[in-house]
Amino acid sequence: MGSLQTPIGMRSSSLLDTSCGYLLRELQMIWDEVGEDKFEREKVLLDIEQECVEAYRRKVDQANVSRSRLHQELAESEAELTHFLLCLGERSVPGRPEKKGGTLREQLDSIAPALREMRLRKDERVKQFRTVKGEIQKISAEIAGRLTYEDSTRKITIDDNDLSDKKLEEYQNELHRLNDEKNERLQKVEIYICAIRDLSATLGTEASMIITKIHPSLNDLYGISKNISDDILKKLNGTVVSLEEEKHKRLEKLHHLGRALSNLWNLMDASYEDRQKFSHVIDLLSFAPSDVCAPGSITLDTIQQSEAEVQRLDQLKASRTKELFFKKQKELEETCNISHMETPSTEMRNITNLVDSGEIDHVDLLTTMDEKIARAKEEAASRKGIIEKVDRWMLARDEERWLEDYDQDENRYSVSRNAHRNLRRAERARITVSKITGLVESILAKTKSWEAERQKVFLYDEVPLLAMLQEYNNLRQEKEVEKQRLREMKKMIIPQAVAEPDKFYMARPASSNRRITNRSINGGYGSSTSPMNRMYSGGFNKTSNYTALGTSIRRGNRKSKASKIPVLRLNRDETSSVVSLFTGPLSP
Predict the structure, then answer these.
(1) Rounded distance between C-alpha atoms, residue 258 and residue 279, angstroms
(2) CB-count exposure of residue 308 (10 Å: 0-12, 13-18, 19+)
(3) Is the Cα dihedral 392, 397, 400, 402 positive or negative?
(4) Residue 458, SS3?
(5) Which of 62, 148, 394, 423 sits at 20 to 30 Å (Cα–Cα) from 508?
(6) Alpha-carbon torsion 153, 154, 157, 159, what sign?
(7) DSSP for residue 423
(8) What gap in Å lies between CA 344 and CA 330, rounded to an integer?
(9) Span of 204-208, 333-337, 460-464, 530-534 with lowest mean pLDDT
(10) What is the reported pLDDT for 195?
């Protein structure tokens, strides 16, 4: 504006050097030609100068604005680049000159490539963050049980202020942890599902229905990802626990039924075919709950069938128990009879009533009978050697009596059909009789040893065996003495006098499987009803309740008027007195 206050000449001269000088000269020429006033000319020139100043001002202002914009762009680029470096966690940009120089446009051109590179890096980093965070959110939704999660990266928010590798690594670690947790949960789900299937197969139930009821995604038929939330794991665990408890209950019930079946089978002596039908139930008795895994081993049908069988056998138990009791009683009696032992007394009617009324335990009853039979067999085994010798002695006694009858037969040497047979039998009988003494001594020794060991009397058909043997020895000695006396008398008396032989009677228990001769011990032809024979036939017969020891000695009156010998009779009272000499208890 100071230039406008200078004189016109000076301004004109200054304008001549400018681009507008020609136009100003042309304007002066026009004014000169027109005769324009001096002041009017000054005013126009002043307006022209003012307009020029304004035009320059506008241009300067525009230049200033452009310069400011360039500075702002440069500053923003620098700030953006710095922001990229900070958020990406990098210190510098490769390819950017360290020294800043040149015009603003040159500086902008130098920073633009680095800025583009950083923008590409940021976009790539953001994609990585979105991918990782998307996986994190997806797995988190699966763990939380939200199967309606939408796999869209648009809804994922990313913090642009922190896109560093460290932050990305944190997200990747979180994703890795969630993947591990997901895999662990999937493994748990598979383990639970396998356990449910195994237990369902063992229990005979439908596993797919149970699994689908927990959640449809657990069924592979639906083709969707499995729900692995805490709630599903809790339900799966509860289902497995409930199935295990049901398995324990059923197995315990089958154990109870198996023991009941075993007891009933043993009680009723069931056949192999009947037992084989429920052998699988009996096999379960040796298994713990953890060992039972066979499919269909503890189904409800198995339990119901076992219960029905137990109920059926229980209804037949009373009649079968009585049948088995009678069978065992018969076995006991046969065992005692074979060994000539006394059969333990049993009130059959009372026991039958108790069985029918259920007041007595059937198993205990049969167990008691088994114990009695076992004791009887054990004692029979211990008596076997003695009984065999007693049987031999009995046979020898039969031969001895037959030989006595044969020796007293005056016609034994006469010619008859069976004379030679009787002669050979007499020879064999004499050999047998000669062994009686040693046999009796052996029986005595064994019997005494048996009684000392058992601390009770050895009874033979309710008669003390030692008393029988001792009585036999006494009778035999008396018999030998009498024979000697008769031989001496024969030497002294008249040959025509025939002394009637003494009659000796000796009783012996009659065996049911042996026939006793009807002839008396010392002759007495035709005396089939002699006292000795009556005693043999009645004294040791069990049907007469063993009324006498069976030992009776009687000496008849001699024709030579010899003194009478008191007859030895042992009735029941005398038998008791003989038995009382022994300190041990009587054998059964």
Answers:
(1) 9
(2) exposed
(3) negative
(4) coil
(5) 423
(6) positive
(7) H
(8) 11
(9) 530-534
(10) 92
Amino acid occupying residue 450: W
Instruction: Report yes or no: 141 and 155 within 8 Å, Cβ to Cβ.
Output: no
pLDDT digits (tens, 9 = 90+) for 197-210: 999 998 988 888 99
Element holding 459 (H helix, E strand): strand 459-460
Shortest CA distance to 403 belongs to which of 522, 234, 547?
A: 522
Residue 489 in contact with residue 559, Cβ under 8 Å?
no
Start-to-end C-alpha separation, the chain: 162
The full DSSP string for 472-507 is: HHHHHHHHHHHHHHHHHHHHHS-TT--PPPP-----
Least confident range of 286-290, 296-300, 464-468, 523-527: 523-527
Dist CA 431 CA 121 (whole Å): 132
The model's confidence at residue 59, banded by pLDDT at 50, 70 and 90, is: very high
Show the tokens assigned to 93: 């940009």
- Distances in Å between the alpha carbon of 384 and those of 212, 283, 390, 556? 74, 41, 10, 39
Q: What pLDDT, in 10s, does the model give residues 157-196?
A: 877 778 888 888 999 999 999 999 999 999 999 999 999 9
Distance set, CA 341 to CA 1, 247, 325, 346, 537 (Å): 165, 55, 20, 15, 19
